[in-house]
User: What shape does this take?
Amino acid sequence: MVWTFFGPSETPYEGGVFQLAFSAPEQYPLQPPQVRFLTKIFHPNVHFKTGEICLDILKNAWSPAWTLQSVCRAIIALMAHPEPDSPLNCDSGNLLRSGDIRGFHSMARMYTRLAAMPKKG
Assistant: This one.
């Protein structure tokens, strides 16, 4: 199933519309759902080509107490607060780790405009 997320306000993703693919394994809720971005996003915890998300609750910190709604909240929180120390996108992570917040925001905004902004007209 495909769900649509809006980029969190006051982030470089603000104004963007992001599609994510969710699939629940047969063993759900004992195993985490598989979630990936379908919309390209410049983010240290999202693989640029595959859309894979590096988020602990989707991997080793999963608990059956988590719901799909809580997974969505965690992804939105991750968009607003990237974790550059475990990057899937090294270019993005390196910008943040080196303190180049302006460079990271510029690249993230550019990709948001190119891939996630609704087309006008």
Summary: Residues 5 and 72 are 9 Å apart (CA to CA). The domain at 2-116 is CATH 3.10.110.10 (Ubiquitin Conjugating Enzyme). The first helix runs from residue 68 to 80. The radius of gyration is 14 Å.
